Protein 1
Amino acid sequence: MFKYVEWKNSMSAIIPKSLLVSLYESMVRQRMLEEEVADLYKKGLIPGLAHPYVGQEAVAAGVCAALEKGDLIVSNHRGHGHSIAKGVSEEAIFGELMGKDIGMCLGLGGSMHSTDLRCGVVFSTAIVGGGMPLSVGVALALKMDKKPNCVICFFGDGAANTGSFHEALNLAALWKLPVIFVCENNQYAISVPVSKSTASRVAQRGQGYGIPGQLVDGMNVLDVYAAASDAIARAKRGDGPTLIECETYRYMGHGMYDTGLDYRTREEINEWMRRDPIERLKQRLITEKLVSQEELETIRTRVGSRMKEAVKFAQERPYPPVEWLTKFVWA
Ligand SMILES: Cc1ncc(C[n+]2csc(CCOP(=O)(O)OP(=O)(O)O)c2C)c(N)n1
């Protein structure tokens, strides 16, 4: 009944080259950042957890590229890619993960509790499903303040099976709020496959609340961008929320501590990696002669050196003073 929404025809013909290049760069930045995070984690430099976003980059890149200044996002425990795509600096992300004073939350939040209001990252939450009702509150505030903006709520397929998903969709639909629910169906909630947890397509559930539900190839950044653009335009017209399900895959384990191989086969992982979003966009840009291989290589090299510099910078920063532990606590 539900099919992928196809935006493939000539998408690259109507997207300007500068945007195509920035979509590529955003995905490369997200991937290279996670490679550094994995390395820092192995060296014991990240206290706390970190959940890698590798494989899912097209979702954050495509959605955030469709946003305008003043638009907001609510992220979850797998949020490094969301932050990068929304314009947070590498230094602020590495700093936060390592608990340093230049972190997004001054090093006090860690990977799963990152906020950067200057970039529109309202917050991220480790409570699975917790971001959805809160994003409805953010959307209500935008509507009450008559702001022309919208909020994106990123969440996983596991979160789609919490009660708060249904409460959030119901209220957002009833009040026609400017929120877009983006489900990143990466096929697993920790080790539980979607086939063992989810009765229908997540996108299909939009129907129950009278809102559009779109199923998108989350390994294709142009499809994600197009779907997000439509949903954002709808929200800003005052027509209410949209539910987008992006079919994607996380290449690595659930967290940096997990190999991801106890509950998945290498063949399955390789199968998804053949649809790699970065490689797909790269091949398309080259085949359609929009960008040369050299230009793309230059971007990779530049991003790579920037990552190294940012890691070094964050590593050399001090930890926050101990008094900050209570400074931001309301009592
Ligand atoms: C309310 C709540 N229950 C359980 C957990 C433990 N937990 C952390 S991540 C996770 C799975 C989330 O899966 P999904 O929403 O699909 O996101 P993904 O990790 O696949 O990105 C669970 C159950 C939690 N953090 N919060």
Protein 2
Amino acid sequence: MQPKRGAVRLSDCHNFHDFRELARRRLPGPIFDYIDGAADDEVTYRRNSESFERCDLVPNVLRGVGAVDLSVSVMGQRLALPVYCSPTALQRLFHHQGERAVAAAAARYGTMFGVSSLGTVSLEDLRQAHSTPQVYQFYFHKDRGLNRAMLQRAKQAGVEVMMLTVDSITGGNRERDLRTGFSIPFRLTVAGMLQFALKPQWGLNYVTHERFGLPQLDAHIDMRGDTMSIGRYFTEMLDPAMNWDDVAEMVREWSGAFCLKGVMSVADAKRAADIGCAGVVLSNHGGRQLDGSRAAFDQLAEVVDAVGDRIDVMMDGGVQRATHVLKALSLGAKAVGLGRYYLFPLASAGQAGVEHALGLMKAELERGLKLMGCTSIGELSRGNLRFRN
Ligand SMILES: Cc1cc2nc3c(=O)[nH]c(=O)nc-3n(C[C@H](O)[C@H](O)[C@H](O)COP(=O)(O)O)c2cc1C
């Protein structure tokens, strides 16, 4: 249920909508809109959550469900929960603890977290702080030497899973950001600046904590000042000509668990399996790239049928409830990625917020699994789903 009155503190937050509301109250408008927004008319963004409502769970009863096991194995990693924190950019803009908070909360719940190429804490610092499985999210650069150096760096740091994002060959059209002037470095419109003035607490936190940076890139690209913006990084440094041969070479070079994030078609999933990927993440980037594209949940069954016996199929997009996760797992997903589900809690209350959100997810998963008459994730199947016409 969406809140009637907005959540004003962490203890008021019982679900995704409460956290979203608290984040809206705490963040300057342009930053909230950067997280909350999506591409063009935001049709895909809305459809991502709606897609879960197209089917219903069919529970079984009287199955003896005293204790439930929520653990799963995915990409060679054992996770205590079937959800993981998908990589997202710029987390220290949302809360000064940024990636540190997300990694600590993921570790506390025994699950995996992703570090973005546009992350604001170094992958090495996070690796040293926690032993829970870590994903590194990679963007493919025109400069092949740079790609090799970055792979090497992640390998040396001990990253378990390499995740190449393939749906961002060019930036999505995020019109909310155009209106506010959100970009890195900031190019705020007057209206955008006023929004920052209304949230002085955020500004105080921002200036009194460690200096903002992009440590995954700073070592390789001069991202300071006006020399390079994130927009220019996408258009000038990333390689829109990237093709399957390039990725096959990367997979060989990594020689560990490698997956593609942003695959949607059966043909691409088969090709990913052919070149040695261990998994694919069905994703439309939270609706932030190609508006009008299909929801990952709607593509899940056919991709699992095509390649589920060869590689791990994961999905993300629109997940706001454990019942969404249970539906995806029932269709054959090995694990489910969370995006805004943990970003709004991060913005609301840092590590405590993300822990609170993951705690709610865990409790909902346990309750949901018991109510489904299952004691482990492996007992879920398509038999317990019915699609509406
Ligand atoms: C603010 C924000 C930043 C993101 N940054 C990245 C990124 O740097 N790399 C990436 O592969 N995906 C990125 N994503 C996409 C997420 O990893 C994930 O696919 C998406 O958020 C899932 O949808 P959801 O937010 O509805 O759960 C970002 C998403 C958001 C909301």
